[in-house]
Design goal:
With 147 residues, the protein is α+β, with helices and mostly antiparallel strands. The protein is 45% helix and 14% strand. The chain has four helices and six strands; from the N terminus they run βααββααβββ. The strands form two sheets. The chain has a three-stranded antiparallel beta sheet. It has a three-stranded antiparallel beta sheet with strand order 5-4-6, with no helix packed on it. The radius of gyration is 24 Å and the shape is elongated. The mean pLDDT is 83. InterPro entries: DNA-bd_dom_put_sf (IPR009061), MerR-type_HTH_dom (IPR000551), MerR_fam (IPR047057).
């Protein structure tokens, strides 16, 4: 039975577990982990000496591989699933970064207002959260410092 991991206590990306510990946590044989590394399914970090070091995220992926394998999913399909899950994780991280940048921008410019302009040049101030028609261009107006 796999040993539970408390992800709040460990950086999920930190490569800290040697192969024996990772194999035990994932309830797999170390040779299986080596094979998955060789075929690029779950690739752990490496120490300067070349030893494999698995992260909490790697172990979660190994558990997912085991679950999918027992359901009869082929390794090539599992590899594609893991690739897409990694891509989703990266995109979620980028969205968090952009949301933080937007929050910081809003905090730095509390007087910024949003206007919409139509093709004929009419300008309308928009309230926060107002949806704009497709033919309308939206711009963010920022007052010049000292205006």
């Amino acid at each position: 039975m796999p040993v539970p991991i408390d992800p709040t206590q460990i950086d999920p990306e930190a490569p800290i577990f040697p192969i024996a510990a990772a194999a035990e946590l994932a309830a797999m044989h170390p040779q299986t982990l080596r094979q998955y590394d060789r075929i690029g399914l779950v690739v752990p970090g490496r120490t300067r000496g070349g030893s494999r070091r698995y992260s909490v995220r790697d172990i979660e992926q190994l558990r997912e591989v085991a679950r999918l394998s027992t359901e009869g999913v082929r390794l090539a399909v599992i590899e594609r699933i893991l690739h897409m899950e990694n891509e989703v994780q990266e995109l979620r991280g980028r969205v968090r970064e952009l949301e933080q940048e937007l929050r910081e921008e809003r905090e730095q410019r509390p007087g910024a207002r949003v206007f919409a302009t139509s093709a004929n040049g009419a300008v309308v101030t928009l309230r926060a959260g107002t949806r704009v028609r497709r033919q309308t261009d939206v711009v963010l107006w920022r007052p010049r410092p000292g205006s």
